[in-house]
Each structure stands twice: as structure tokens, then as C-alpha cells.
Amino acid sequence: MTTRAGFTALIGEPNAGKSTLLNKMVGAKVSIVTHKVQTTRARIRGVAMAGESQIVFVDTPGLFRPRRRLDRAMVAAAWGGAADADVIVLLIEAHRGKTDGVDTILTSLGEKAVGRRVVLAINKIDRVEAASLLKLTEDMNAAYPFERTFMISAEKGYGVEDLRDWLAEAMPEGPWLYPEDQIADLPMRMIAAEITREKLTLRLHEELPYQLTVETEHWNEREDGTARIDQVVYVARDGHKGILLGKGGETIKAVSKAARAELEEFMGRRVHLFLQVKVRPNWLEEAERYSEMGLDFRDGN
Ligand SMILES: Nc1nc2c(ncn2[C@@H]2O[C@H](COP(=O)(O)OP(=O)(O)OP(=O)(O)O)[C@@H](O)[C@H]2O)c(=O)[nH]1
Ligand SMILES: [Mg+2]
Asked: Is 97 labeled as ligand-binding?
């Protein structure tokens, strides 16, 4: 039997559903998902098996017009993910269509995807009437020579199998890159930090989720089979710390509870999670914070 293995990068505007699709393909929650834009910050790999083919999906941060150093590093990471891939899947949202943001991505694709196979996935088709998809498909294909167009709902699973089968065939021949039963290659301490950041993002409003970062500082395996995990949430301002803690510490307690529950489910055992909030006015300009996130600090220049 010939085996195949390769990389498929998922790119698109923030909120397009890239992480949802990766999780669906992998069959487990490897990458965090929220209803807010700019949830994913770094490249996250998830491994899916399809027959004799191994597809390594690369989830990327959304592509948008960056302002801050962190934004620039995120966008650079996204294009870096595309540059290394065998196939690029551009996700767009069916109900939003060909937005200005999508146009900007198409222009960049022209330069950055030379020689790569690029397919279009129109996502969230559960939100529109089927009739509207034809025109969108035409407009998109008039603007860029996609090899194929798929209509999917990453959340409901519609069309996901077709896309996976096509990608399985498109992967180059070669030995598998990961053991057959491996689904992710993110270290556990990073997955744990991401889970906490997801719960914070879901609970906090406006700019706050974009002004914080979570790091796992200590991870201790205990003799009773449980794990003690200590994490730090860095914020830039005193006021943010107050909001994060909430009245009588109720906000941070709720976040910690939700994160712990998900971690326990993911790990299949008991976890003791301790969160500490630290004010660090300059964290968005610190190289170490970026390497902890899996981002290249220099890309933010
Ligand atoms: N109705 C509907 N919602 C979806 C679908 N796929 C994803 N979503 C929702 O869209 C929102 C964004 O999903 P994500 O997977 O976080 O999007 P993303 O592209 O990874 O976003 P960033 O990480 O911010 O770039 C979430 O609320 C998802 O539940 C879909 O097929 N249908
Ligand atoms: Mg994402």
C-alpha cells in the first residue's frame, strides 16, 4: 500500500471557522474556538488519518490588517503556515461572502501561494439559502483560480468528509509524519494555557481578551495520579486585573472552574488548576511572551 502524508494549511479571515474545521477533521478539540475574532494566535497542528493518508492540518491565526506587534506576529505566522503547506484551504463565511478582507487575502495569495495547490471552502453554509452559494462560488473563482470549491459547515459536519477525501488524495506519497494515534503536537502545557485563554475570552468583554496572555508556569505530576498546574495570566494594566478577578474573585473562579473541567476531560484524570493574575505593563513587547505563545518575536517588527 502506498502511504501519503502532508500538510494542509487552513487560512482565512478571523472567525471564518478554521479552528472548528481542524477540530472536526481531527475528531478532538485541539484548537480553541470562540465566537470572537482573533482567537487563534499561533500555528496549531492537528493530525487526521484518512485511509492510508495522513493529513496534518495547520490551523493559523486569522488574516487581518495588523496594528500591534502581536497582530503582526500572528499574521506572519498565518502566512508562514501557508508557505510550508502542500495544500492551502481558504475558508470564507457563506453569509458574509466576498468581503474586503477576503479580497485582500486573494491579492496576497497571488504572491504567496505560487506553485501551491489552493482550494476554497465556503463555510457556515448552514446559515444561508443554497441559492446564494452559486453566485459566491462564481465570484470567488473569477477572482482566483481555485483548484476546487467545497461547500461545508465545519460545525455541523456538512461536506467535511468530501473535503477530507479530496485532501487525502492530494497529499504527497511518503511515510507518515506522526504516529498513527497522535492527534496534535502541541505540548500539554500549551494546550492547558490555551484552554484557560478560551474560557477567559468567552467571559471577558471588548478589548480585554486581546490584552492578556496565559502561560503554564509549573506542571507537577502528583503521586495520587492527579496533576497540579500553575498558570499565570499576564495583563497590561491594574484595572484589567481587577476586572479579571471580579467581585470577590468570582470571575477568575468561574474561569478556573470551566478550564479545569475541560482539562480534566481532555486528560481523562483529575487536575488541580491554580491561576494567578500578574500585571506586566509591557508584556506585549516582551520576546519571551511571544515564544511562549509559539510566535516569532521578530515577525512583529
Ligand atoms: N453556524 C456556523 N458557525 C460556525 C461554523 N463553523 C464555525 N462556526 C462558528 O464560528 C465562530 C468562529 O469559529 P472559529 O473556529 O474560532 O474561527 P477561526 O477561523 O478559527 O477564528 P480565529 O481563530 O479568530 O481566526 C465560532 O463561534 C464557531 O462556532 C459553521 O459551519 N456554521
Ligand atoms: Mg481559530
From this structure: no
